[in-house]
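Reproducibility note. Readers wishing to regenerate the assembly model reported in the main text can use the exact inputs given here. Chain order matters: entities are listed in the order in which they were concatenated for prediction.
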Amino acid sequence: MLIHDEIIQLAQKNGFDACGLAKAKVDANTQLVYKKWLSAGFHASMDWMETNVHLRFTPQLLVENASTVVVVLYSYHTKLDVFEKSPVRIAQYAWRRDYHKTLKKKLKFFYNALQQKYPELQGRYFVDSAPVAERYFAEQAGLGWIGKSGMLINPVLGTNCFIGTIIINEQADKYDNPVENRCGTCQRCIEACPTNAIIGNSLIDSNKCISYQTIEMKINSEKPIHNSFSGFIYGCDLCQQVCPWNSKAVAFDERVAESAKKWGDLTAEQWQSLTEPEYAKMFEGTPVKRASFEKLKSNIDKVLAQR
Ligand code: B12
Ligand code: SF4
Ligand code: SF4
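Running the prediction on these inputs yields the following structure tokens for the assembly.
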């Protein structure tokens, strides 16, 4: 049997900012919300969200006898504003090496440490890499609530944090409980979203979301593209920038990559004339590479045309 408090301590030792334990079970209402979201087409062209839905809601199909989900948070919150004087913006989560790689590595060390403590334990670790209901499990593990912006909000870390999970075949001596939703009467994220992508009930219409439009949407898509990305050429932080829980969140300025600190120095002309080799060098190893050179160029053109 896993000992809850030992696992939390081990997560801290392995450099995570928060950790909680949830049962490996997804409630029927959450499954319904997700299925309705899909059937309304709010996943836009992200067809992969439709496949393996059964895996997302049945962790036992990912790990035999899955009983526990260990959920960790890793913050990327910073008080630095790399793009303060820049004509364009890139979302904060991308100001570092790609979290799919860095967090996965951290999770691997954590998982190995768990296996040393509990030699019988079997499991798998994930970060935005498989059909896992990450926000749901984070909420169940007491790590925060789902805000009106759709983001998981941790009372200490705010919204700017990645979620990682380890699904394990053993039960724990105790599990965490969800915390109270503390959005209250605040509506700031809904008011700040320039495309009305926040459709209520903490859900997002990806078709309208600038994050989707600047990263995932195909360059030759026939769907209408919003005519202003509000300066964002990759991702979007507008609903998070206004969230009061981020003004009081703990900042980790040292987690911003040195290379990213220079991105904001480029002038509009330099962004306009960005070449493919420059793009390759500048964004090497960062999440920005998820957008092809052509896609990023097209976003840059749209943003600069709006000035
Ligand atoms: C697809 C996706 C997107 C899409 C759609 C976003 C969305 N809000 O649905 C797009 C491309 C737009 C996107 C954008 C961003 N994303 Co994204 N994305 C995902 C991904 C792969 C799946 C999310 C998903 O399933 N959405 C569909 C909705 C229906 O599901 P859900 O958000 O998980 O919500 C569930 C629960 O919260 C609950 N729920 C929600 N509302 C309600 C209401 C009721 C009544 C009930 C009962 C339940 C319920 O049920 C839902 C279904 O399981 C996850 C990784 C993962 N595997 O989960 C990352 C993830 C959500 N993204 C992340 C990030 C960082 C971002 C951006 C901030 C990046 C950026 N700066 O541009 C933005 C934020 C936009 C926003 N306001 O949400 C992080 C969020 C971390 C956090 N603190 O919440 C995740 C968790 C990746 C990670 N491992 O860290 N993303
Ligand atoms: S990320 Fe931007 S476009 Fe998407 S919901 Fe938030 S404010 Fe709206
Ligand atoms: S801006 Fe306000 S309503 Fe939106 S998520 Fe933050 S606290 Fe909740």
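We highlight two features of this model. The chain has 13 helices and ten strands. Residues 149, 192-193, 195, 197-198, 204, 209-211, 236, 238-239 surround iron/sulfur cluster (ligand 2) (CB under 6 Å).
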